[in-house]
Amino acid sequence: MGRLLRVHERRPSRAVTSLSSSASTRLSPLLAILAALAALTIVAAPLQISAQELDVPEGAYAEDAFDEGDPRVEKRLILDHTTASPGQTITAGVQFKMDPKWHIYWRNSGQGGMSTEASLTASAGQISELRWPAPTVYHEAGGEIITFGYGDDVLVYWEVALPDDLQPGDEVELKANVDYLVCKVDCIPGRAELTRTITPGEAPEPADATVVALFEEARSATPQPTSRRKLNASLRYSKAPIAPGEDFRAELAIIGCETPDAPDCLNLGPPPERPADAFVFDTLPQSRLEVARVSPHPTAHSGWFIELQGRTSSDTPSGDQRLSGVLKLIDAAGQPLPTFVDFLFPRTESAEAQAMLLGAGAPTDLNPGPTSPASPTDNAPSIFAILLLAFAGGALLNLMPCVFPVLAIKVFSFVKLANEERQSVYVHGAAYTAGIVTSMMALAGVVIALQQIGTQVGWGFQFQEPRFIAVVGAVLVIFALNLFGVFEVTLNPGRLQNLADAPGGARRSFGEGVLAVVLATPCSAPFLGTAVGFALASSPFVIALIFMTLGLGLAAPFVALTLIPNTARFLPRPGPWMLVFKQFLGFALLGTVIWLLWLIGQMSGAMAQTAQLIFLLSCALAAWIWGQVQFGSTTKRLLGGLAALAIIALSAWQTLTLTADAPPPESTASQASSTNAEGIAWIPWSEEAVQAELAAGRPVFIDFTATWCITCQVNKRNVLETPEVIAAVEEHNVAMVIADWTRRDDRIRAKLAEFGKAGVPMYLLYHPDSPEDPRVLPELLTRQMVIDAFAAP
């Protein structure tokens, strides 16, 4: 230890001399005393560390990577036993100790640096493979380069099995060679050869406690296989085999607990914020690989889901390879659980490769990422096709029952605008479009934010939150009262005389655009499911682009009317009838409120429904109070406005909490086991239930639905629960399964995503002869379509 101790004594001694000299010439006596105490503290820290340094023979110690005359790395060859018996297995390791802020690299350096190499030879005995503790992930160059390595200190080690025929007095010579690169800002190469001997003895003698503790710490930091961690890990590829020069995607699923009460359950902590911190992969020859996203497992009680993407080089592979690496898992208490995984990397045709292909014999309860198993990456639609579907789906939303009230209001507004100057018409069209696009972008922002924190969502996800439904209902009531004339949307009392005749301002058109988006999201028009499903599994830029295109499609019909000349001659002339029609439209909005109240009752029960009625009544009273004072004096407007806001705030505080916290009633799915009035015995959805029915030889029809989905309810009442379809169900012995997504269920969301859908409705028909290839029916059903599907072989 003498050499090492001298190294550490030299460095602080210079600091002490400098500080003491400065104190004697420039500081007061009191400050000089304080400075001396500080200097002793500086000296004490290195001396304490030096006292704990490892005493190794001269040949087992080396220091190099000199920078400005100082070594940046020290290395020691250490053993966990000073003497050992013949046939005993001992542990030998090389300890690297780096200066602060310097680091060396792992066996795979990542996207930069140079991999560390270490080897051990022995004059007698067998040596295991080198064991590496889990490395740290370094985000270098502002996060542009990801590398793997170690800072401060690390111990890599081997197990050495001594021969059984060793005689007393024989010595086993160990020789370790290391070659590495140490970096801070600059990088310095280093190389060393370390040697030491171990002498057999009658009784093995362990090394001192400090050395033993170092080896125990290194073993605990060494990645363990998933079987030892009691984890279930699976990997699937977007294509197999993966040819030279191809882009590919892989999905790595890690499950600690399928359910909370599962035996041998391992509760994992949350995934890291930065995807690259989750998985440290070994070198994959002829390929580039990176972690695209990491999130909680979508169906398991505890688990991670890691999405990888990469590209192979243009070189021709000689055979299959391996994709392996270290999962940087943590348990629920925050303790690290480094885990080693190793999978086939398919470069040639094989049965094992096909089994790992997405959608081919693999579990189907995983989030498939940007592309679904039904359409792998190489067959995925182009972004232009998706944008076209988004625009068409947005336009068709105007025909959905959800948007009817707002569509009627816009038709009424267009009648009022028909005789206006073209410039005024353009302003209203632009304001309506801006309201829609702004709302769509806000919705996209929420989706992106939830995606970035690892939460997966679907189209219409906000209608799974009772409080959101309650607020939408209040907005509709206030909007309806405005149409009834209880209050006016204006801030200029001087124009009160013209309110009956003047068209709604641009602000109203903007608000109508916002309302159209709010009411449109529960619907899933044709073409919309594919476009939104693609968006929700894509990058933030693509999500924003697709949602904006959806908005433009939704606004397109009205904007087209405003741009077509001479449209006014086909419309009725303005007159007193318009005031009556405006009030009639208020009742159309209140009809939508009835639907929202029914939703809350279905989701949270009668008490929540009553609370919502109280909230709506309070909002109506607040609107009436504002209508009484809005054209009065400043004092009246101030007092009336404060009273209205106080009523809404107090009511919301009391009722929205009850609306959200009320226990949900028995769900559609839980009631499904009994035959309803129409004669269909609905079976609650689960993968196990579907497989059981298929095994019994029955076709299986799955209705992915939600009570807030208008299209779903229309299909159910007008098609699925009609006598003709019920007769076909009985004739063909079809198992009718219902997957109710009224409340958030990540299993259903993952299943929708598997088929490229982001929302309901979705209809699947499985046949026992081809259970892996279900038929996807359109969002809008007809009776004959369903009957023909049941009859098809």
Write up this protein.
It holds the Pfam family Thioredoxin_7. By secondary structure, the protein is of the alpha+beta class. It folds into 5 domains: 2-51; 58-222, Sandwich (Immunoglobulin-like), CATH 2.60.40.10; 227-379, Immunoglobulins (Immunoglobulin-like); 383-661, no CATH class; 668-791, Glutaredoxin (3-Layer(aba) Sandwich), CATH 3.40.30. 41% of the residues lie in helices and 24% in strands. It is built from 21 helices and 26 strands. It has a 5-stranded antiparallel sheet. It has a 5-stranded mixed sheet with strand order 6-11-12-3-13, with no helix packed on it. A hairpin with a 2-residue loop joins β1 and β2.
Summarize the structure in short.
By secondary structure, the chain is of the alpha+beta class. It folds into five domains: 2-51; 58-222, Immunoglobulins (Immunoglobulin-like, Sandwich); 227-379, Sandwich (Immunoglobulin-like); 383-661, no CATH class; 668-791, Glutaredoxin.
Topology diagram in text:
Blueprint (H helix, E strand, L loop, with lengths): L1 H25 L2 H23 L9 E7 L2 E10 L1 E4 L4 E10 L4 E8 L6 E6 L3 E2 L8 E5 L4 E7 L1 E9 L10 E12 L3 E14 L4 E2 L2 H12 L3 E2 H4 L2 E6 L9 E11 L21 E3 L5 E10 L5 E11 L8 E10 L5 E10 L5 H5 L27 H14 L7 H14 L4 H31 L13 H19 L21 H15 L7 H9 L3 H24 L13 H28 L1 H24 L4 H28 L6 H4 L11 E2 L2 H9 L4 E6 L4 H11 L2 H10 L2 E6 L5 H9 L7 E6 L2 E8 L5 H9 L2
Parallel strand pairs: 3-12, 14-21, 22-24, 23-24
Antiparallel strand pairs: 1-2, 2-4, 3-13, 4-10, 5-9, 6-11, 7-10, 8-9, 11-12, 15-16, 16-19, 17-20, 18-19, 20-21, 23-25, 25-26
